[in-house]
Each structure stands twice: as C-alpha cells, then as structure tokens.
C-alpha cells in the first residue's frame, strides 16, 4: 500500500440525502485491498514521499441504508475507480468510507483530512468544479487494461492536475538514482516531463470549462474514511438532468391562459363578422 501513500479520493454523484425531519439514505463503502489502475510511482512533494500517481482501483462492498421507518439496508459487491484528494495521508490496507456529496451551496467547501497534519482543506466552489471537470474528462480505467504508456501518463496527469488545483504547487521527481541507475532515471525524467505538460493542460482546460458551458455542471462526491489517518477519495460525473414535475397549480394556470386566449379570439371573430 506504500505506493498509494498521499492519496484521498473523490467521486461525483448523489449518495446521501434527506433531512433530520425525514428519512435519510446513507451509503458506505468497505474495502480490504486497493491498487493503482494505471499511472506512475514517483516522489511527490509535498509531502516528499514515494507515492502512486494515478487512478486507484478499490474493490469492496457498497452498503445503502435507509433510516425508514422501517430501517432497511442492502449491500452489493462493487469496484470503485477513484482519484486522490489528499497528499498527506496514506491509504490504509482496509477501511470504511462514508460517501458524501459536496454541497455547492456553501463556500468554501471543506475536504475533511486533506491538509498537512490531517487537518481540513478549504476549497472554493470553483476549485471543486475544476476537480470535477478534470476527473470527468480525464483517464478512466474502469474498462480494464492492459494500458499503454500514454494511458498511464494520462492517468498520472489527471491525478497531478487535481493536486495542482488543491495545493497549487506539487512536484514529481524520479525514484531512480541518477548515479546508480542513469537509464531508469532518464526514462522517469522524460515521463515526468510529459505528465507535467499534460497536467498543466488539464488545469487550463478545467478553468475554461467551469467558467463557460461547464459551470456548475459537475457533481463531486467524497469518500470520507472512518480512520482519520486514511485518505479522502473522490470521483466526479457530469450532472444528469431530469424533467421537473409541474407544480399542481400550474396546469390550472395554463388552462386559464388558454381560456382567456379563446375568449379574445371569439371577440375578434365576432367584431369582424
């Protein structure tokens, strides 16, 4: 699990809703293993640790609980494909996450454990939408591999772009030693240069996306760990828009307008005759 150190994940979608006065539905996700789908392993600064940089594959159990009455609970096996929101906590070998949709009515948005020392990290709503855009338009390895070098670099660049939005400055350096393994070191430098350039493009694209047609278009859900020393994780998707039911009085209002229109038409016809 060391290769996944410094990662908190984010997801988009609605996973918890309700109020104190009504029934609520909560979703939790428990896992016992995780791995890097595609990406690179580099030294990430901050915090200066060797970490996997890219999308994470986490198989586990998704449990949905309705507070009722009566209380009901269902579980299903599911594999989540997530990105990190947290540079300062390693992903534990096992944990249970509570899925929480980011509330974009509040500003700033608080990411529970993503700052140094496991403290909360404050992000603006605009930053959260940037992260949503980067994930929704970035690498998705859920279809399975094997993955090419370009795909692995895309996965790593997607993750790095998210960190750049959160922390502004994040540096990747090779794990290979330039003296004892010069060829491996040179190859890693070339990979990092490609990842840096692609990540910068993703950040720029997310800015133009979330201030234009994509503004407020992304749902972001955070996987908040039970163990506060574990990572927050996330994924993001584009909003799914649904038809809004008409208020009960609206059909009467529309029919009333229709009646007035018919009355006016009759008056005009009578005057013409």
User: Can you give the mean pLDDT?
Assistant: 79
Q: How large a portion of the residues is in β-strands, by DSSP E?
A: 25-35%
Please tell me what the overall shape is: globular
How many structural domains? 2
The succession of helices and strands, N to C, reads EEEEEEEEHHEHEEH
Number of E-state strands: 11
Tally of alpha and pi helices: 4
Relative helix content:
25-40%
What structural class should be given to the helix and strand makeup? alpha+beta
Q: Report how far apart the termini are.
A: 88 Å
Low-confidence stretches: 11-21, 239-273
Whole-number radius of gyration? 24 Å
Largest sheet: 9 strands, mixed
Please explain how this structure is put together.
By secondary structure, the protein is an alpha+beta fold. The chain folds into 2 domains: 2-242, no CATH class; 247-273. 30% of the residues lie in helices and 30% in strands. The chain contains 4 helices and 11 strands; from the N terminus they run ββββββββααβαββα. It has helices spanning 125-136, 149-167, 182-210, 250-272; strands spanning 9-11, 25-31, 35-45, 49-66, 72-84, 95-101, 109-111, 121-123, 171-173, 218-225, 233-238. The strands form 2 sheets. Strands 1, 2, 3, 4, 5, 6, 9, 10 and 11 form a 9-stranded mixed sheet that branches. Helix 1 (125-136) packs across helix 3 and helix 2 (149-167) crosses helix 3 (182-210). Mean pLDDT is 79; it is low at 11-21 and 239-273.
